[in-house]
Every structure is written in structure tokens, then in C-alpha cells.
Amino acid sequence: MPDKGKFPHYMLKEIFDQPKGLRDTIEPRVSLDDAVVRLEDEIRIGVDDLRALRRINIVASGTSRHAGMAGQYMIQELLNIPVDVDYASEFEYRNPLIGPGELTIVITQSGETADTTAAQREAKAKGSKTIAISNVIDSTIAREADGVLYTHAGPEISIASTKAFTAQMAVLYLFALYLGQVRGKFSKEQRRAHIKELLSLPEKVEKTLESSTACEEIGKLYYKFEDFLFVGRAIHYPVAMDGALKLKEVSYIHAEGYPTGETKHGPIAMVDEHLPVVAIATCDKNDFGSVLRYEKNVSNIEAYKKQLGQVIAIATEGDSLLPNIVDQVIFVPQAPELLSPILEIIPLQLIAYYITVKKGLDVDKPRNLVKSVTLE
């Protein structure tokens, strides 16, 4: 088992492993000079088949499914190909209408998740090509797929997945770029710009990790609360989902991830001084849609505050508005809208960690959970 080094728990070590995991996952697969993404030897699906794809299905469970949800936004936004995301545990029970001409991407850190393996076999039986995303070499799901994209995050020991999640999102973005490259979607300069942003992620994650002390202070302030609401719009909604999952997995605090706009349709009734709201409210100032979403997020946050809600915001560096509205704010570096989830999840992982430590619980081995769910 890997040594924890200077860290008291594997979860904290693995959170801080993320810059290296991203470098190892991204750098060998891209060339900035040539402006190309090189995945052909891993995907092993013919160029003609990739060009003819009419739909993509992403199937996963837990944190891997949240990565798949982010991947759905990436692929649809960049390529205009319809993408469906399924719970692996429900996939075979809904008679999925898939077949030849489609691609099914299955995601599992361990590569041995029983529900996801069963979903992959169902997809193959219906004639779909399959690509596995796994962190474990030669795992079952990797062996049975047409192609496999490994996340080179390194061994993940803590039950709560952290570094595998960010690596999975990076791989999905790489896949979207590669598919766009094959289908002639991007110019060389557009590909170079995307690759440059990908390569800048590890340094931006290192910068985000500097918020660890501020996250620890938030942990001390909020560890006695019994309920949390995490909210985010569009590609930030999966981040809210995973932030809530991390907190309830390790601290046993009830937490719910919700689309920000949907809180007006019920959950806002629960917001008061007893229900902290964690709001993903970053803004890519170079993206008009992101600016509009940010303005709506500010309006929602102001509504929570009117109901005496305590709000913790994840915001973009340079934001001078949110600090005057919310109770606590953690800043992440500026990033393109589709890559910002890789930064936003870092403080949420840290907050979950520090709340759990403050409660005196075993952060690496939460009750009733196992690292790899090998039984359906």
C-alpha cells in the first residue's frame, strides 16, 4: 500500500496528488506544437466508425457518473453530438435503445464495478462499440472494451474518490477533442488553444490547493450542521452533485446536490439559518453563456440570503461582487467554462475532508462503503 507521506490520511494525500495525476493523464496524449491529441492506439475504433457516430451513451455509478455528466456537457458543447448519461445500476433494467452506430463509454475507477460491467456487456450485446475509462490497468472493464482510456491518477486508497474524478473529466475532455479532430470539427489553432488550456490545469489545481487553510476554517465553522444544499448550473451541476456526495460519504451529514435554478421549484423552502448552501458560482468572462449563468447565480444567492441562509461560494479569482454577498468564498483560477469543474471540485473535497476530521471520524474508511462495488 502506498505511503501517506506527510499527510495524516490518504484522502488528503490523494486530493494533493491531483496536479500530478492530471499531468500524467494529459501530457503524454497531446502535442502543443503539432496541435494534436493522440488517442488512436488506445481507442482502437476505426476512424470511419468515429466519424459515423450518431449518439454516445455514458454509463457509470457514483462519482464516475458525475464525471460522465460533466463529459456530456463537454461532448455536446464541443461536437454537437447527443449524449445520454445513465446510472449503471439502472441501465439494463430500462431496455436501453442503443445499437450499431453508437458508442457507449463506461467509467469506473477500479474497472471492476459490477453494475458498470453488466451495463458494458448489455451495450455490446446490442451492437454498440464500447470504450472504458478506468484507473486500473488490465481491469475487467478494460479487457472487455473495444478501447480503453486509462486515468493515470495513481492508486486511490481512500474510499471517497478524489483524484480519479478529476482525471476522468480530463480524459473525457481529451476524448471530445480527439473525436472533434477525427471529424474535422476544429481548426489547428482551435485545437492548440484547447490543448494549451488542458496543459495549464495542473498548475491551476496547485493554485487552488492553496485554499486548503481556508477550507479547514470552513470545516470548523460548519461541522455541526446536519444538512447541506449544494447547487450549480449546467456543467457545474455535476460538481454540486459530487460535492454533496463527498460530504455525505465521509462525514455522514445529509447533503443534496441540486441544479441552481430548480431550487425555486421546492428546495428553497428549506433554506434558512440551519441549512448552509454551497453555491458553484464561477464565471468564464470569455463565454457569454457563462456570464449570463453567473448573473442568475448571483440572483439565486441573494434569495438564499434573504431567507437567512448561510452561503459558501466557489468563485473565480477577481470576483469582487460575491465576497460582499456570501458568508464564505473560496476562489479558483480563471478557466474555460468546460474545464472549470476540475478546479471547482477541489475546495469541495477539502471541505468534506476537514468537516469529517473535525467530527473525529475515519475519513478513509467510512462505514458501510467499499472501494470497489463488485456485487450488484
Secondary structure elements and their pairing?
Layout: H1 10-16, H2 18-26, E1 30-31, E2 36-37, H3 40-43, H4 47-52, E3 55-60, H5 62-79, E4 83-87, H6 88-91, E5 102-108, H7 114-125, E6 129-134, H8 140-144, E7 147-150, H9 163-182, H10 188-209, H11 212-222, E8 227-232, H12 237-251, E9 254-259, E10 277-280, H13 288-306, E11 311-316, E12 328-332, H14 340-358
Parallel strand pairs: 3-4, 3-5, 5-6, 6-7, 8-9, 8-10, 10-11, 11-12
Antiparallel strand pairs: 1-2
List keywords for this structure.
single chain, about 375 residues, alpha/beta, Rossmann fold, 2 domains, five-stranded parallel β-sheet, 14 helices
Can you put this structure into words, describing what you see?
With 376 residues, this protein is an alpha/beta fold. The protein has two domains: 10-206, Glucose-6-phosphate isomerase like protein, domain 1 (Rossmann fold); 210-358, Glucose-6-phosphate isomerase like protein, domain 1 (Rossmann fold), CATH 3.40.50. It contains 14 helices and twelve strands. It has a five-stranded parallel sheet, sandwiched between helices. The chain has a five-stranded parallel sheet with strand order 9-8-10-11-12, with helices on both faces. Strands 1-2 form a two-stranded antiparallel sheet. α2 (18-26) runs antiparallel to α10 (188-209), α5 (62-79) runs antiparallel to α12 and α9 runs antiparallel to α14.
